[in-house]
Records
---
Amino acid sequence: MFTGIVEELGEVTAVETLDDASRFRVRGPLVTRGAKHGDSIAVNGVCLTVVEQEGEEFTADVMAETLKRSCLGALTVGSRVNLERPMVADGRFGGHIVQGHVDGTGTIVARTPSDNWEVVEISLPAGLARYVVEKGSITVDGVSLTVVEAGTEHFTVSLIPTTLALTTLGHKEPGDPVNLEVDVIAKYVERLLGTPGAAR
């Protein structure tokens, strides 16, 4: 489990396209410290398994389903990525429950800067709007954020200077895709209540 508190900005150093998957090599000096085969690392909010680790880099395989549901397929050599290791049992719960299971992708619609923060509008794919509520949590490219406004086709978040400086969200432009993971609790409640759209 992750919490959506990005530990460092990494960099994609190699991309290998396979028949039904891709293999990424990512540089991340902090998250690779002590990493070993089989460990999990979230890359832009997607939980990936470490296949190999050498020095400050790790390699992970991304299957076709993940490429289809996320925007990892758009990454190229040199792309910056948000990296987070799983939460340890006695660690601080800094964000919210993040599984690293992306529900879909959105697109940066607009950015409105101010003196101390920036409001970012992001499109919502069909079917996810019902899980997004004002002042609720959402994960954008692996970053735990609080929803400011929630619409049927978009939502907004406010980004503080730290988030702008230390995550990829500070560099995304209108038109750029982002990975979205909605609050898993809302999905479980919907399923248990047997409400429309629950069988996903």
---
Amino acid sequence: MIETLSTPTGEARIHWFPAPRARLTLALGHGAGGGVEARDLQAIAATLPTHGITVALVEQPWRVAGKKVAPAPKTLDAAWTALWPALAGPGRPVVAGGRSAGARVACRTAKELGAVGVLALSFPLHPPGRPEKSRAEELTGTGPLPTLVVQGAKDPFGRPEEFPSGTELVAVPDGDHGFAVPKKADIGQDGALAVITEAVAAWLAGLPG
């Protein structure tokens, strides 16, 4: 089901993947270089409802409008915040999350919005080749909220070993920023996606519903 909603920055869409008798809602935003069709978002949306998790993929207004370039972070945050009542509307606890830029949005807003946890897929810890431009403060800013990072082992935006000590992190072997793996990789693309979905399902199972 696709729900179209107005935000201060234009129309957005929520792609709903409902679970029967859901105990949690997992809201996921997309990155700055793509939309909700990203392989990890689609794999989670296809798998998690069987674990009692309703998945909501949030399509930001700039993507709905067909634009090629994402707006400033505060604009992304404003749209996400405006959609939160719809995401929380069913009355279930909501885990905020996303991939890349969407993960940053979730981290920046989760406490204010009342999320019960944060899922950061391919968190862009720094621009490629610029580790001194760290965004670790956004990630650690989630404070006491349970926060899981799922990161490709070969992500140029931040490899697993670069993350702050104490980060709860699952590494995807051979994965890049989009969780693509080389054809010669032992794990294979389906295996890489299974690492993601199984890790997310197990982590969510430990959160209060």
---
Amino acid sequence: MTEIATARRSRITPEREAELYEAVLELLREVGYDALTMDAVAARTRSSKATLYRQWGGKAELVAKAVRHGKPGGSADDVDTGSLRSDLHALTLRSDDCEMEQNSALMRGLAMAVHSNPDLLKAFKEHLVEPEMAEFHRVLQRAVDRGEVRADNPAMRFVPHMMIGAFAARTILDEQPPTQAFLLSYIDAVVLPALGAPTT
């Protein structure tokens, strides 16, 4: 990348970037991915379309980064409580029930769009799926290093599937949003036993 292009991309301050992401999330909740346009984002944020395209390249990357930005702060590296159960509980507690309900509704709305938009799928994998998988891997690796979980346990590679599945299925099966209490009980009843890890 040239120095000029780098300078152009660095004009947006972190505070302004956060404002833009919040506006994108608001628009997503209001109209959904397919109806969201760069024109609408530009109007909502008092930005030029040229700036948006220069900074993010297109709608898919902007939306994926906005969703990533909207997730609770910190990373798995910030959560090392000394046990797998406490680590998974701490990661779950980074979102309160209101945030979980909003995120659940947002992800349901984006699910269909991801499958019908290859650019969005690619951006989601890069900015959301791969970082989340890496987080789970770090948490699980620490559990292996502590001797809580065997490295060859076949359930290891399904932990992200279990956690995401519980989050998504709560609304479908129970007609209720996911909550901290639900996910914490799910971790203790399903995830930890599958891994052969202590549940207390």
---
Amino acid sequence: MNERSAARLRRLLISLAEGGSLRLAEAATLCGVSEMTIRRDLAASDGALVLVGGLLMRADDPRHAPAYDLAAQRDRHAEVKRRLCERALASLEEGDTLFIDCGTTLMPLAAGLPSDLSLTVVTYALNVADAVSARPGVRLWLLGGLYQSSSRSFDGDDMAATIARLGINKAFLSAAGVHAEKGLSCFHFHEVAPKRAAIDSAERRILVVDPSKLGLVRPARFAGLDDIDEIITEEESAVV
């Protein structure tokens, strides 16, 4: 690596010293070079900086993780997730239309929907749809598009518009990061539009999150804490 490249990387490391991230275009502007030059610098570097979803961040920042593996997440904090979802299930009412987010946190909720209530479930997650489709008395609205295997969910251009047309009573949301200042975030940018649409249209917005996600920031921000009506975590349910 030449001296100018090393100097650019040092400047970026200093800029990210307190955490957070930079868009690739912002990093290029800061250094006065093209985005391709920044990419070349990173390719020749020792890995202290990583590029995730178009965002540049420090590899040693504990609030960030390089990737999301749905299979690996399935068994993490499984018992905690089950207890949290039991509390969420207690809020369901006859005739509710529910938005159930993607990921593994809400799977016990999807699998445990009561058979004595008539419910409609809106989701863009294939694993949630698999669980819901087996439940009697539940109508399933699966939002389609391009399948994203990393999160077993779909990415569609008209997804947000479809959600906005539906009368959602309760939106059950998941997040990979919950931070007091940075808000709610996830790993995948295609999740932002459906999460945001559900937050904007639902009568009540409920975040279900295990404590391991608290204090973290992930690449794709989708809401602030003030966008949520209730947080269900290991503590008592909190209204924000």
